[in-house]
Each structure stands twice: as structure tokens, then as C-alpha cells.
Amino acid sequence: MKYTFKLRQHIGVPSEPAVKPGDKVQRGEKIAKRPKESLGANIFSSVDGVVTEVDDDHIIVEEENTDFSKYVKLSGQTPKELVEESGLVGLGGAGFPTYIKMNFDLGKEGILVVNAAECEPILSHNIARIEDEPEKLIEAMKIVMETVHAVRGIIGIKKIHEKAIDRLKEVIDDSTISIHELQNIYPMGEERALLRETIGILLEPEKFPSDAKAVVLNVETLYRLREAVLDKKPLMDKDMTVAGKLTENGSIHVFFDIPIGTSVESVIEKAGGIGSEYGEIIMGGPFTGKRTYLYQPVIKTTGGIIVAETFWQGPKKIGLLVCACGGDEARLREQAASMGSEVVGVEFCKQARQVKGTRKCENPGICPGQVQKVLKLKKAGAEGLLISNCTDCSNTVMSCAPQLKLPVYHCTDGAMRSVNKKLIRKFKETS
């Protein structure tokens, strides 16, 4: 079986190949390295095998008789050295190299905030990992807190996850570590929303957690950090949720330790195989995931693979309302095309501020209203709306669009329908 390792799996510059075709590699062997003095990360083979292809985009390894219980160990000694060498990046979002955060010094007054929100609907592997091994999360927190000189650690987790919360309470043995229960709304796991809820500070969109004397890491990142420091294990494996239009329709599966580089098709087969009819395959969550294909590989930031329901036929002319917390304009245009709809107008949530080439919400999850934007799309000739709004924004859209006789579609519809979950529209109660 072939394993494909993308050279860009993180924020920063692509990794540089450290092997050539014909080379034999072992599981845990470095096959691509971070360019010196650049933001990036090393990449390791997750299998034993022979390198068959190397180019500017990827490395392909033909797997041969891998013993997945064994790997080439890291050579670093300190937690900082091991995390940097391991190739660890943020595993809950864009893939920011974790060694940068490990180099922060909070001066014995800062806070480590753990993102255990499991923010995207359907995804459930982080909570499953906590329920299975809560003590390892606490061990990882202590490593980070000691390294960055944080005086407190807070685990932000939605209060609906009662079993995971109970399991954490069983193993927390340090008064400096606490649990903060979050509302069950999207996007509670957005970094600034999480800080607002846990420590009471709302950062400006261009600011970072370090400006609030905080380090934010998600659950799986911490589990893999612990592996790097205590087991000297490179980042080679990935936890993920696989769900949707599978052979067992509407099922949700959690898998631990899928080797990075595995094809999407192989992971779906592990979940029982793909159904006969589906709309698209999403890599990631329903809100922020991207369309992918069976031949594409699992990368470091792959948190989910969702086989979405077939697309609804949309109106002839559709307006797009883009939220900084959900699918971007390109993603909505892609979906509108699949619905057979012509895009006649594009509006952005009034809080979606432009920051360094991307959009960030001024106050994630708390919406001031979307009536003006909806009216603009109606005047542009829209016969329906396709939106990517958060829970609260969707509430405000639904307070006016139906009165204007505009049917509303959401970027998450195909994913949510595929597992028979309630669609993101108007909710009477969000807590």
C-alpha cells in the first residue's frame, strides 16, 4: 500500500525532502525537514517501506511489513527540543508549529488553556480520547505548564460531555488545574472565544493568546506532545472521526492512531466503506472542513472525514452570507455550484474583520444581527441564501430570511443530514 506525505501540512513553509526515490525508510524516520530559520515542521514516515516518489508537493512510500508498535525514537533531550524535533503542530486547526508555543515564557503568571470543546459538530475523537486516557492529558498539561512557566491550567470543555468531565475529575490531582464548562454552541473552540469564556478576556482579532499571557493547545496536540516528550515518538499518527454516508448509513466512528499518509479511501474502508450515493467528502468538520477525494492522504491536521449527503437542488439564483467562523467564500461558491445555483451576491458577516489576508470574527459566537446583509442579498436578486454562520448568527438570519421568502441553506447541511443531526438554523435554546 502506498502512503503519501504532503510537504505542506502546517502553517509556514513546506518541508524539504530528506530522502530520494529508492531509499528504504523505517517508521519514525525523518523524511522531510523544516528549512533552517523558517516557520515549519519536520515530517516522519509512519511506515516501513521504500520511497517511490519525491517532488515539490509530496513524498510517496510503498509500505513493507510495518510493525506499528515500533518506531525510530527522537534524539532530543529537553521537552522543547523533543517537541520541535517531533514535527508537532496544532492538531485542531490550521497546524501552527507547537514548538513556537513551547518557547513562550509566561513568567509564572500565565495560563495554559486546553481546547477540549470538540467545537465542530459530529467530530468526537478528542472527547473519546479523554474518556479513554484522561490521566495522559493531565500529564501533558503539567509538562507544558512547567516549560512555559504557567501558574494555572484550565480545561475548556462543553458541559454536555458529562462522562469526559467525570473522568477528568477522577484524575486531576493538582489544585492549579481546573475545568471550565462551556455552552454547547459553535464556535466555542475558536481560540479567542475560548479565552473569553475561560479567563474573561476578549482579544482583538489581530491579537494572539500570548497577548493575554496564555497558551492555548487542543486535546490531541497535548496527547501527541506527551508522546514526544515521554516516549520520544515523532508525530506519525492521527486520531479522527469518520462519519456519514457509509455502508452503515449515518454512522459515526472514532479511530485512534491512523498513520499519517493513509489514503482517505483506506480510512473510509476501515469504517465499513462508502455508500452508493453521496454529495461530497469533507476533510475536517462540517463548518470549516474542505472538499477532499478518495485518493487524497491523511495529513497532520486531519480531524475528520465526513461523507456528506447528496446536495439539495438550490434556487436558480442564490446569495452567499459568509461568516468568519465557517466556510469561506470559495467554499460556499463550490457548494452553490454543486447545488446548481448561480451566485448573484456575496455579503460578509458585519463582524468578519479582514486580518492579514483572512477574516476573523470580532466576537466569535456572539452575533449583532444580519438583517441588513440579508436585505442586500435579496435586492441583488437572490432567491435563497447559502450561509456559513455560527450558531448565534444563524439564529439572526432565521429571524428575517423566512419573512422575506428566502429559503436558507447552510454549509453544514450535507454533513449534518448524513448523520441525521439537527440542521444549523434557529434554536430556541443553545445551552
TrEMBL record:
Q: Which Pfam families match?
A: Complex1_51K, RnfC_N
Q: Which GO molecular function, any one, fits this protein according to its record?
A: metal ion binding
What UniProt keywords are attached to this protein's entry?
Answer: 4Fe-4S, Electron transport, Iron, Iron-sulfur, Metal-binding, Repeat, Transport
Where does the NADH-ubiquinone oxidoreductase 51kDa subunit FMN-binding domain lie? 83-224
Signal peptide start-end: none
Annotated RnfC Barrel sandwich hybrid domain ranges read 3-60
Q: Which PANTHER family match?
A: ION-TRANSLOCATING OXIDOREDUCTASE COMPLEX SUBUNIT C
Descriptive protein name: Respiratory-chain NADH dehydrogenase 51 Kd subunit
Species whose genome carries this gene: Lachnoanaerobaculum saburreum F0468
